[in-house]
Structures are given as C-alpha cells and as structure tokens.
Amino acid sequence: QVQLVESGGGLVQAGGSLRLSCVASGLAFGSYGLTWYRQAPGRQREAVAIISSSGSTNYGDSVKGRFTISRDNAKSTVYLQMNSLSPEDTAVYYCSAAQYWGQGTQVTVSS
Length: 111
Description:
Layout: E1 3-7, E2 10-13, E3 18-25, E4 34-39, E5 46-51, E6 57-59, E7 67-72, E8 77-82, E9 91-97, E10 100-101, E11 105-110
Parallel strand pairs: 2-11
Antiparallel strand pairs: 1-3, 3-8, 4-5, 4-9, 5-6, 7-8, 9-10, 9-11
C-alpha cells in the first residue's frame, strides 16, 4: 500500500519561511519523479516544483527563486523549502508520485 504523508504546514507571517516534508512508503521511492502541488480556495491545482529521479528540478514561475525542492532517497522523503512567503502562497500543498497523492498540508501566510 502506497502512502505519501505531508507535514510542516502551518501559519506564518509574510516574509517568513516553512519547510514541508513528504514521507513516502510502499513504493520504490528513488525511481519516481516527485511533484509538489498546491491548491488555493477557488483556484485550480497547480504544480509548484518537480524533482526527477535523477535530481533535476523545475519550478513554477510564481515560486522561482523562493522555493527549493529536494529529496533524500535514503529517507524516502521529498522536501519543499519555502522562503519569502506571501499571502498568495496560501494553499493546501500536496506531494505526488505518479498516480499517488498525499492528503495535503495547509499553509497559511498572513499579511
């Protein structure tokens, strides 16, 4: 049974930082590309950051230069370091590996 469990969300003031984690189990973690998505109320889900199985990364335009995705295959964990947060970053953040999804973690940025 595949599970992806996100953590690290919370309430932070504008300009602050958070680090999200997503721990995977039940899959060959190192073989998967991983994606962080987010969905704000009333908006479509959008891909925020992607890391391939080889470690190459790509970012959405709205987060480039502020967010960093990384992975630790030994811990079956993918991270999203989020800096210089703004209220526009408020959303539920999800990690995904192919067709597998976590339950999401809420990030709220106050102005």
